[in-house]
TrEMBL record:
It holds the Pfam family AA_permease. Keywords: Membrane, Transmembrane, Transmembrane helix. Gene3D superfamilies: Amino acid/polyamine transporter I. It is found in: Membrane. One of its GO terms (cellular component) is membrane. One of its GO terms (biological process) is transmembrane transport. This is APC family permease. Its main location: membrane. It is a multi-pass membrane protein. The chain crosses the membrane at residues 34-53, 59-79, 100-120, 146-162, 169-189, 209-227, 248-274, 294-316, 350-366, 372-391, 411-429, 435-452. Residues 43-454 form the Amino acid permease/ SLC12A domain. The lineage of its organism: Bacteria, Pseudomonadati, Pseudomonadota, Alphaproteobacteria, Rhodobacterales.
């Protein structure tokens, strides 16, 4: 296989090119695969999870949280697109931290990524089981055990990832497109454009039941509308043209999700009282059933299943790439840095993370799993503004070539940092114990890395980008 990789200092330079072609990962993906990876991971947030924000503060609070989270993730997408199109290697934000900040930050960021995606994978599997159980109950088969379906979904997707990234993300592209189309069809079918609408916003909408404190609390689950879009960075070493595909796929993904999130909110709050919507397991499927159309119920049932499978599929891909990159750099045992000789996938990392996802999928409540994923993602987002500011300071725009230059620096970085601070407080209001426990966990593993694991790291092999020395070095 031939591939053209720029040797310009800054963009997927010669060091990465050599590593990829000699027994490493293959560059076989295009912009559509990046869009499918980002949107596929996140679109499940429109099918379940976001509605817990309604329970925190009411329907209007969930909409405000949706739009503020959209601003947060637009900043994430802009910052990530610039750095990742320049540091085009597996590991995404972990590799960025390794080059720009240092080993301890890189180790923590790598763990943030793995936990965020593995917990999201577990949440998706729980939703698959819940959906199967609900459909079985509707057809007269009460009491169906969802656990075999949870296990089967994770095992099937792990096998698919094991077999190759091109087939994996092509599968995600197809089912993500179907799931997104289902949301558009539900909106059009229930809107007054084509006749009488079942939507009853006037009767069902209320003021803020818990005031503006409820709006703040809703920010916790507002992230679920978009959580995981930053996972597009994990494909940086497997995309044919990082400078073009990564920014295009990521930014197009954020716009797609903003549209899907707003349409989802509009339909659901027009069909369900906020008290019920705030605790629904599969709100879009429930909305389709309440529309009175059997065809819509079937379509949204399929859409929910496809959205959860696409998300879990992308999560396995992203978590394994981060774990693989850390193993390859000896931040973890080098055994995890192996690439399959035939399929060219990080197969050991894929296999290792399967039982961890199963433990949480089979033994933890959905809202707790979602919270663990959100907290790990939030810690990663807090790192991004610092990373971006140091990147621009150490390597100004005229010192290295970038695949994409995000505008208005440093406004997006400062905005992201402020929104992260607000969201931390929102999480603390409802899940303070989990927040403290997770921060304590990362402090403990940081001490372990500093005093034990760092001695095994090949320090001279850490910096693979052919950049000039940082400004002020």
């Amino acid at each position: 296989m031939s591939d053209t990789v720029s040797n310009t200092p800054g963009i997927a330079g010669e060091a990465e090119s050599t590593a990829v072609q000699n027994g490493g990962l293959l560059r076989v993906l295009g912009p559509a695969h990046i869009w499918a990876l980002g949107v596929g991971i996140v679109l499940v947030g429109e099918y379940m999870g976001w509605n817990f924000a309604v329970g925190k503060g009411g329907a209007y609070a969930a909409l405000i949280a949706c739009w503020f989270a959209g601003i947060l993730y637009s900043c994430v997408a802009m910052l990530d697109s610039e750095v990742t199109s320049t540091v085009a290697a597996a590991g995404g934000q972990y590799t960025q931290a390794k080059h720009i900040i240092g080993p301890l930050m890189a180790f923590n960021v790598g763990l943030y990524l793995v936990f965020a995606y593995t917990m999201l994978e577990a949440a998706n599997a729980i939703t698959v089981g819940f959906l199967v159980e609900t459909v079985a109950g509707m057809s007269g088969h009460e009491g169906l055990d969802p656990r075999p379906f949870i296990v089967l979904s994770i095992m099937f997707l792990a096998w698919l990832n094991y077999r190759g990234v091109l087939a994996t993300l092509t599968f995600s592209l197809v089912i993500t497109a179907i799931a997104f189309s289902a949301i558009l069809i539900l909106f059009l079918a229930t809107s007054p454009v084509f006749g009488e609408s079942p939507l009853r916003h006037v009767e069902l909408m209320t003021d803020l039941p818990y005031g503006w404190l409820g709006v703040l609390a809703a920010m916790h689950f507002g992230l679920w509308y978009y959580l995981g879009i930053e996972g597009t960075c994990q494909a940086a070493e497997e995309v044919r043209s990082p400078a073009r595909s990564l920014p295009f796929g990521t930014l197009a993904g954020v716009m797609t999700l903003a549209i899907a999130a707003t349409l989802t909110w509009y339909v659901c709050v027009g069909l369900m009282p906020w008290e019920y919507l705030g605790q629904s397991g599969v709100p879009l499927f429930d909305a389709a059933r309440l529309s009175g159309s059997t065809s819509l119920a079937v379509l949204l049932g399929i859409g929910t299943l496809f959205a959860t499978l696409a998300s879990a599929n992308g999560c396995i891909n992203d978590a394994s790439r981060a774990w693989f990159a850390m193993g390859r750099d000896h931040y973890l045992p080098s055994w995890f840095g192996a690439v399959h000789p035939a399929y060219r996938t990080p197969y050991r990392s894929i296999i290792f993370l399967v039982p961890i996802a199963l433990i949480f999928a089979l033994g933890a409540p959905l809202d707790q799993v979602i919270t663990f994923s959100i907290l790990s993602g939030l810690l990663g987002y807090t790192f991004m503004p610092l990373n971006m500011m140091l990147f621009r300071r150490k390597w100004p725009l005229d010192s290295i070539k970038r695949g994409y230059e995000h505008p208005f620096h440093p406004i997006p970085a400062i905005t992201l940092l402020c929104l992260c601070g607000i969201t931390y407080f929102a999480v603390f209001l409802g899940y303070g114990t989990q927040l403290v426990a997770m921060i304590a966990f990362y402090i403990v593993v940081s001490l372990w890395f500093h005093f034990w694991r760092y001695r095994f790291v090949y320090r001279a092999a850490q910096f693979t980008m052919p950049w000039p020395k940082p400004k002020g070095y």
